[in-house]
Amino acid sequence: MKWTDLATTERHSARTACSGGASRTAGSGSQGRALRTRSGTRFVAVLALVGCADQLPDDVANYRTDPSCVLMNAEPLPQRSDDPHEGEKNVYACGALASKLQANARPFDDGVVIVKESIRRDSDYPWLVSTARKTDSGWRWEEYTRNFADEPFLSIPVGENVCIDCHRRVQGADWIFTVYAR
What we know:
Layout: H1 3-19, E1 32-36, E2 42-46, E3 69-71, E4 88-94, H2 98-102, E5 113-119, E6 128-135, E7 138-145, E8 154-155, H3 160-167
Antiparallel strand pairs: 1-2, 3-4, 4-5, 5-6, 6-7, 7-8
């Protein structure tokens, strides 16, 4: 068995073990190493940094194709020097009225979810999705990551203060950097 086949098999096994058969992956952000002994027995060591984590919520899981999610930027946004998220970004507003987006009206209404995807250089899939969910005139911040295009996004344990500290610079724009530019 080639390493790529083994890695795929082990990721599938971790998904099954984590959720009792559902498609959750244990250890996104983990490294797996396979070793064969002289007898051919396989040993796998997995460092699970995330464990069985929450997946990207259903209401934003299809943000790229969902008609209620609007791409806000005309071109991918380049990584800034002070940007904690590696790669180019695309930002979507889900559940926002088109007229308010086009007018760049702030504040956003309760229920709007801003989805930011990050795509690393030399990659063709998002590795990170950050969400800002407007609730009770405030924001709830969450981040999700994956290592491979065929894996689901899993939540990563980042305190909201990390997001708030960065977005504080645009508090006057309802905490969101991106303006509609399509």
